[in-house]
Amino acid sequence: MEKKDVRIQLVISPSEVEALDEWRARNKVWSRSQAIREAIRRMLEDKSDPRD
């Protein structure tokens, strides 16, 4: 596993935090950071163009 040593500051709305926390609970993801990493990983694996 690659070392995680790059920090990215992120500003999101309260409703986005709530949605993230709900997703974390449903998927038994321990931390918000891990949930965000998982969302990014899934997005990058998706071959479709988001503009379609």
From TrEMBL:
* Database matches in Gene3D superfamilies: Met repressor-like
**Where does the Ribbon-helix-helix protein CopG domain start and stop, copy by copy?**
6-46
Q: Which Pfam families match?
A: RHH_1
* Protein name, as recorded: Ribbon-helix-helix domain-containing protein
